[in-house]
Amino acid sequence: MQEQQRKGNWWALLPIAVFLVVYIGVSLIFNDFYVMSVVVAFLIAILVACFQNRKLNFENKLSVMANGLADKNIVTMILIFLAAGIFAGTLGRDGAKTVADLFLSFIPSNYSALVLFIVSCFVSTAMGTSCGTITVVAPIALALSQSTGVSLPLLVGSVIGGAMFGDNLSFISDTTIAATSTQGCKMKDKFKENFFIALPAALLTIVILLVFAFTSSGTNNYVPEKINVWLLIPYVLVLVGGIAGVNVFIVLLSGIATAIIIKLALGAQIISVITAMGGGASGMFEVIMVTVLVTMLSALMREFGGFDALLSGIKRVFKGKVGGQLGISLLVSAMDVATANNTVAIVMAAPIAKTISEDYGITNTKTASLLDIFGSVVQGIIPYGAQMVTAVSLTATSAGTIIPFLFYPYLLAISAIAFMVIPAFFTKKA
Length: 430
Fold this sequence. Notes:
The chain contains 22 helices and no strands. By secondary structure, the chain is mainly alpha-helical.
């Protein structure tokens, strides 16, 4: 058995192929990537894995899956998912709407795309969800376009770009939690690694949107709703605490407590706050279940030699540290194209990525950063992803018209590749 694992066994990856055939096949048949439950698809894949590796009986396979779950990082990730969900549920969308209205109440309409991008960056970083950000800000983009005549695809593309900025960087984003927990690194360290890659992309996006602003004109006819800045305090608290390196549980619990106090002080009924907290936790159940199932599936495939086979294939194609980083990036990108869910893609790619990073001498923070970056890049671009589907449904536009204006995801990919290649070039030259 040990010899088989050392050489690798490509048949051990069959459950992943089955998952992709079931998930994508059903989605294509019904022309809807959300009609098939990802949980059901993974259960089928686990069933296939249980029929493999006849050297282990079913009881031993259960032990393999249980041992895979007996990992501190998995437990930590699940608890953070729950705490982040409760925080987001407690505040709801009120705070995010306040941020958008605060900026848009005094900015000229020719700067609308720029402002929407910046607002979406802040809101998504504070909320930790790209879809939540798009749900809040996309209707504002539609209203702005209708009242000022600014291109709707440009505005919506700016919203999606800003939403993916925070999805990639936020301390309470499920993708950040998944990437850091699976790679065993601190969120603060991953944020620093990630921020310096994301910053050039964000600045170049701002420059491009400024060019659009200078070549257009208009007046602001958008009328914001009532602004309540108190709702911003919990977001700012979580953001500052995370950057300062405070323990993530302390940060989230402080944010939840502050959010509860503020909501009650503003007149919310305690029963509604309790219900919102429960709703936020419930919203994380599918992500948690997928995490558990993927961990079990990964343990079975690893035991049967699947990871060794995949790693061997990557080593034959990609050479050196830059090659290893490209391998990780392509791995998570392929998973996201297949699943249309960057959190699931990260959880699926994470065990293999960790092995690659160890073999190629890539730091765990760099690996976590690459997983999160390329998961976000692909997720923000694919027309059947939840982000694009949400934006299209809320603004009555089409994915084809929006895709050319997704400046930030494209630039983020370019920046990430540059940060792989340029340091290696100078090191080699020296």
